[in-house]
Amino acid sequence: MSETGNLKVGIGGLGAVGGRLAEELASGIEGLELAAVSARDVAKAQGRLAGFGSDVPVVTLADLAELADVVVECAPAAVFDEVAGPAVEAGRIFVPVSVGALLSRPELIERARRTGARIVAPTGALIGLDAVRAAAEGTIHSVTMVTRKPPGGLAGAPHLVENGIELDGLTEPLLVFEGSAREGAKGFPANVNVGAALGLAGLGPDQTRLQIWADPTLERNTHRIEVEADSARFSMTIEGVPTKENPRTGKITALSVIALLRRLGAPLTVGT
Are 95 and 89 in contact (CB under 8 A)? Predict the structure, then answer.
């Protein structure tokens, strides 16, 4: 913690999510302060931080854990280990935006038990994880999520490339994936971290069913969840507005992480 008793926050990546977090933290969030960021273009990052009125250092992903109590991962999935490993090893609070990357790294959770680290996954662009977590305290019979995105929000996904699925010129909705949340996270690492979060909150990533549609009739990223449990039956739909910087990411994703960070320093929190 800082001398003022605030939790120090380090941000890995200054894209659509990380940039918004840095701006909010620089403006002031009770109990928190921005300590450091990491970005590929150091000069550009320094200029952006100056625009926020902040002069925190721009460091490597690994160095964030040395400077911060809370490390937020907002980087491409390819460099996930560079920020996650050091943060968990140092016993920090680790907040991964790339939640799907956790599914293939169970050793991180075991390591966190030993070091005292906490891995806190944000809700992201989803809805109702509090209800799913509550239902999981009883018996959940089934969880299904149907994701529909404009084709541009799915472009370049490994599953599409490996299966030769072309979305250019698409004129009607196309089902591009159906399977488990674990399989979906692997095939769409930049697109459906929400499916991984849903799986971790409820039945598990292998039992959570996922459909992904490319839908040229939509302008918003849409997720519908249906849950059947012994305590309740519920369905939820969210239509997220994509960011201009990255159509794969909804505006609410950054806001979800900001809300999570506020909970860490707040005297009162609401929700499960």
Answer: no
Give the 3-state secondary structure of residue 18. Answer: helix
SS (HEC) of 152-189:
HHCCCCHHHHHCCCCCCCCCCCEEEEEEEHHHHHHHCC
Domain housing 191: 129-248
Q: What is the pLDDT of residues 27-43, one digit of tens each?
A: 999 999 999 999 999 99
Residue located via tokens 């799986």 = 199
Residues 144 and 244 in one domain: yes
Which residue is catalytic, options 149, 209, 223, 248?
Answer: 223
pTM value surpassing 0.85:
yes
Domain co-membership, 133 together with 243: yes
Element (H, E) at 106: helix 106-115
Query: Known catalytic residue: 159?
Result: no
Residue 222 lies in a domain: yes
On whether both 240 and 256 belong to a single domain, the answer is no
